[in-house]
Amino acid sequence: MTPLVLEIKTADIHLSDEQFYRLCQVNRDLRLERTTEGKLIIMPPTGWETGNRNSRLVQRLGNWADADGNGLVFDSSTGFILPNGAIRSPDAAWVKQERLTALNPDPNKFLPLCPDFAIELRSASDDLTMIRAKMQEYLENGIQLGWLLDPYEQQVEIYRVGQAVEIVKSPTQLSGEAVLPGFILQLDGILS
Questions:
Q1: Which domains does the chain have, with CATH numbers?
Q2: DSSP H stretches of helix in the chain
Q3: Count of CA atoms in the C-beta half-sphere (13 A) of 158
Q4: Is residue 115 within 8 Å of residue 141, measured between CB atoms?
């Protein structure tokens, strides 16, 4: 199954951030995102293998973040309102604590910012072109580092500010670089 994209702006319907939030709350069984053009993307649930890979990914990032103490980790159920108006949910994300403190957002609403770091984990239902566009969107909206993990091609695409996308074939680990100092993601059980 591939994501279902609903064209609603062409029907003269515009959902505010609050209306989109309420739509998500009454449809909790659906994973919804909104593009900057106002399209609604309904993503199907993943298979068990992708679910397990994503669980390991969030766990490993969370363990590092707990030890580091400089930010918070979010899973794929967290909505981020990007500066361009899109509302996206990366598979895993990290935000510096100082940004959250300065913003003081409502903890029951979507975060009105772009994460500092985000990971998308390709599942069997994902359209690679759409996921790459999502990663570029994160870059255009303020992300510092992003990873597109592709277990089907056994590769990782690394997105950095002001640089071309780097493709790494069959890595065993990834470094969080200066954005996540000291974070090394072991890819066993995630990429393989």
A1: 46-186 (3.90.1570.10)
A2: 17-26, 48-68, 97-103, 128-140
A3: 13
A4: no
Count, residues in the chain = 192
- Given a contact cutoff of 8 angstroms between Cβ atoms, the answer to whether 159 and 146 are in contact is yes
Residue type, 189: G
SS3 50: helix
pLDDT at position 31: 86
Q: Annotate 51-104 with DSSP letters as a single string.
A: HHHHHHHHHHHHHHHHHH-SEEEEETT--EE-TTS-EE--SEEEEEHHHHHHH-
Give the pLDDT confidence of 74-125 residue by residue, as tens digits: 999 999 999 999 999 999 999 999 999 999 999 999 999 999 999 999 988 7
